[in-house]
Here is the input.
Amino acid sequence: MTLTLRSRVSKLRDVPGSVLVASLIIIIICFAAVAAQFISPFNPMEQDLLAVSLKPTSSHWLGSDELGRDVFSRLIAGSRGAIIGPFLIAFSGLVVSAILGIFAGYRGGSIDNLIMRGVDFIVALPGLLLTIVVVSVTHGGYWMALLVLGVLNVQGDIRIVRGVSLEQRKLPYIEALRVVGVPRWRIMYKHIVPNIYPILIANFATDFAGALVALSGLSFLGLGSQPGTPDWGRMLSDGQPSLFTNYWAALSPGITIVLLAVSVNLIGDWVYDFYSKKSLQR
Amino acid sequence: MADVLNLELNSSEPLLKVSGLTVRHLGAEHERTIFSNVDLSVARGETIGIVGESGSGKSMLTKAIMRMLPPYMAHEGRIELDGQEITNLSLRKVHQLRGDQMTLLFQDPFTMLNPVLSAGEHILEALRANKKFRKEISKQESKKIVLERLSEVGIHDAAVAGRFPFQLSGGMRQRIALATALARNPKLLIADEPSTALDNTTQAEILALLKNVQQSRQMGLILVTHDLRVAFSVCDRIYVLYAGSILEVGPSVELEKAPLHPYTHGLLLSEPPIDRRIEVLTSIPGSVPSFDNVLGKCAFAPRCNWQTQVCLDSTPQLRNVGERHVSSCLRLQEIKSELIVDRTGRKTADSPFVNLSTQSALPSITPVLRIQSLKKTFINSQNRKVEAVQNVSLEIAPGECVALVGESGSGKTTLGRCIVGLEVPTSGSIELDGLEATNYNSISRESRAALRKKAQIVFQDPYSSLDPRQTVADCLSEVMQVNGEGKDSRNSRIDALLKHVGLPESYRVRLPESLSGGERQRVAIARALAVEPKLIICDEAVSALDVSVQAQILSLLRKIQKEMGISLLFITHDLAVVRQIADRAYVMKNGLVVESGLVDDVLSRPQNEFTQKLLSSVPSSASQLAEKDQTLLLKKDKDK
Ligand SMILES: Nc1ncnc2c1ncn2[C@@H]1O[C@H](COP(=O)(O)OP(=O)(O)OP(=O)(O)O)[C@@H](O)[C@H]1O
Ligand code: SF4
Ligand SMILES: [Mg+2]
Here is the structure.
């Protein structure tokens, strides 16, 4: 009777196969991120000049790179950074949009105007270019990249959340709560948030995937992460020169990025559909 | 079974003959029967009605006949149209049949019309679907046909043909939809709640038009409606559908005078009369079950006053109870006389018990609500001013029930919203129980909190008035909490409130999704009561409910008014409801009060022309309707 995910998905077979596979991928990558030291077969930083540009072997599962570092171990070592950055960006997007978006949508008037002017300003910025300039000029590295991407990312979330909050505001149940004297803040966080959270989750997933790709792109360009750190984007660019001779080194991080991004999106979509369908079934 | 029942008109072959029709919903987990074993026939030139409450399967029945069921629904039985069996006809052939032979008219004309096609193009489009027409009719001729069809539905202005759906009013759209449906001269028209989405006067016009067209074309017409009054006014015979079974079939006249099934009887009694106030409003307890829940017994048994063990032992079959009249009630012979007593023995209540005209003479009584020269102007999307409320003054005495009536768009709702602070009036003043309440934004938090305890509101749509994620108890508890009540007193008051609105304690943990419309409305009323207000504004609070449930809620509101002395401002378009509940009434039109006074005066001796028009558009018996239809059509012509 209650709307928790657990009680609704009583049987695993109700979940589409693609979502199960996506969850498995995410679980594996998260596990790798947490247990990196214990499962990594080699030291990801160790150069073995006797074993450069290897094809996959029984000990080097994904071969080795130009400097003889084990690709698989570096992939594992990079997973933590690959998850944390996008997570922080997506999470801050979620929190900020839940606060500002709902506030703008619910309050309306001058506060709404103010917030939306700010959003418009960010929209007007040339996003990627700005990120590249800021990160390279400030030499801010990874954290600066996170900050800039986080600020750029939040505008989309705010707009979406504002839109759905505006819809909620017009519903009789919200009006009844106002008439009965429930304070504004309480209506926002106790009534609007629970009713729009499929949207928040969907936003989180899109943000995460987008940030993963953007951060990898920055690393690929040599911005963001420090040289030498096992970062998926950087591995991609390091491997690129020898793409045709030693494609394992370049392709494995690329494929992993795509897999993770697609998986997160798939799950986000599914959770969103699941709840929206629920509310449409009336 | 069908041949045992003499439902059909003498010997002639019926236009539509449905026998043993069953429809099942093939779910992933379990099958669900939507309706079962339905026999139905329509003679040429006959109008039948299918009535029943929401969810009884009316729409699915019409879809099954039109062979328009969604793919996850399976049907069995036999459908014959004009002598041809169409039960399992290929969809391609059925497609040709639709429009040529039979056609469907929906509740919401908007969903039927294509927004990018003009009115004329809709009709042309329908005509062109026929091969013969495409080949043989010239452009000139087709234009003429379009105009002909339009004038048949009462549109004599040729310019309308060039207008698009969004440029037309709801009534006009329904006319265009009808003209489109009639384009290829079908023999059978099925109309599913064709007038429900329209306001009262337009509703009457559309019904009159349907009847008119049906008679002049001698077409078969199936009218699906939840409103018995509508069915009586238009149909020759009526099928009563309940939880997927037909319970009674008979000629309208007989059903109206002497229904022979407790359900029809109950429905009829729940329908409030417009000409007098009933002392105890009859309602049917509970709500409609699903077919599978009442399998193997009388479908109505769980809600029937006369239910005994026999009723639970087997599924009753329809039996002849008169000429072309069948009923499935097993105990009909025993209870027939009781039904009659029930119907005739209803007491008419005394006139309203408070009379403000005498009260306002006593300066000592502060009115619960005093509105003076209220005005509210909106700026619409085209930056034009819309004067929703122009100049309204109104008073409500303590314990009084005042009705505010008028068509949609007359400003009733805006007025109600101003009173509870959901809108800020442009000018004028509002006082609640002596407290200034004109602008909720310009007063202190404490004064606002004080006003909350004066006036509360209950909205129309029970499905969106409750937070879908909050249980009944949480909902009520929150209201008391924000008004500063301690936990223990909250807990005990929840039970008291539930009892007040007639819900069992076990409903505390229910979520809105597991409540019926009527139950949700009870919770909404309990929520309003939780702050112990002096005045409750009911904005069309019973309009979205089935008649049987509507009567339950009306009785509840009456009880609240009487026992707790709470005043009610009852905003509605339904004059029969006004008669049942209100002491005084204000009639609004275009933001102005055009008439006010005691309900008895306003409804029985209306002075204003507009009130008279409102009264005359309430559906009544067939003969009156025919008369009205003529005058309406004449008037329409004159207007042009
Ligand atoms: N698309 C659908 N899928 C599954 N079940 C459906 C669908 N449409 C209707 N039903 C179910 O079929 C039953 C009958 O519904 P139907 O729409 O025919 O009722 P109705 O008498 O027309 O009600 P109303 O007066 O509300 O229009 C209900 O139990 C409903 O939940
Ligand atoms: S059969 Fe029994 S339960 Fe059903 S309507 Fe008749 S008396 Fe009531
Ligand atoms: Mg229906």
Summary: Chain B touches chain A through 34 residues (CB under 8 Å). The pocket of adenosine-5'-triphosphate (ligand 1) is lined by residues B 25, 34, 52, 54-60, 70, 226, 290 (CB under 6 Å). Residues 365-470+515-607 of chain B form a domain with the Rossmann fold fold (CATH 3.40.50.300).
